[in-house]
């Protein structure tokens, strides 16, 4: 009888673990997309004009939120296409990573609202720093 109880307990544990595993963060995909977003934040930081800085900051946003996310612009390039669902959605379940990515998103969005190249550069620097923080 105890053998059956142990097998049943093991099966129950597996069944209960499945929903958690399905909702677990895809840290590998999130990290890859964050690295790509960081590269584009660096490109925005080095941009010679506001339009170029804004274009790269939009690429950052697109990588962070994914195609279904708020702020995704389908008219802009999506350098993270095929890497995952967006760094923030893929990081779901990893609170520290999600917090860092959301901070980077806020900085990138601030840069998109910038009216001067200097302000866009400052936002791009903050974005890059947030994405590279550990």
Summarize the structure in words.
The structure is a single chain. The chain starts with a helix and ends with a helix. The protein has one domain. 71% of the residues lie in helices and 0% in strands. It has helices at 2-23, 27-45, 50-65, 87-90, 95-112, 117-132. It contains 6 helices and no strands. The chain is mostly helical. Helix 5 packs antiparallel against helix 6 (117-132).
What would the keywords be for this entry?
134 residues; single chain
Q: Could you state the order of secondary-structure elements as H and E?
A: HHHHHH
Task: Please state the average pLDDT score.
Answer: 87
The main sheet comes to:
none
- Termini separation comes to 50 Å
Q: Low-confidence spans: pLDDT under 50, at least 5 residues?
A: 4-22
Task: Report the total helices.
Answer: 6
Helix % is over 70%
What is the number of beta strands?
0
Cα-based radius of gyration, to the nearest Å? 19 Å
Quote the beta fraction: under 5%
Cα shape: globular
Q: What structural class do the secondary elements suggest? A: mainly alpha
Estimate nothing, just give the exact number of structural domains: 1
């Amino acid at each position: 009888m105890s053998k059956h109880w142990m097998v049943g307990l093991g099966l129950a544990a597996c069944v209960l673990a499945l929903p958690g595993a399905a909702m677990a963060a895809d840290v590998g995909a999130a990290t890859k997309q964050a690295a790509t977003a960081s590269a584009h934040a660096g490109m925005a930081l080095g941009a010679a004009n506001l339009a170029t800085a804004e274009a790269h900051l939009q690429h950052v946003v697109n990588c962070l939120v994914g195609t279904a996310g708020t702020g995704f612009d389908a008219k802009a390039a999506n350098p993270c296409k095929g890497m995952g669902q967006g760094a923030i959605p893929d990081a779901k379940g990893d609170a520290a990573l999600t917090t860092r990515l959301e901070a980077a998103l806020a900085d990138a969005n601030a840069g998109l609202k910038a009216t001067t190249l200097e302000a866009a550069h400052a936002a791009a620097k903050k974005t890059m720093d947030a994405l590279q923080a550990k």
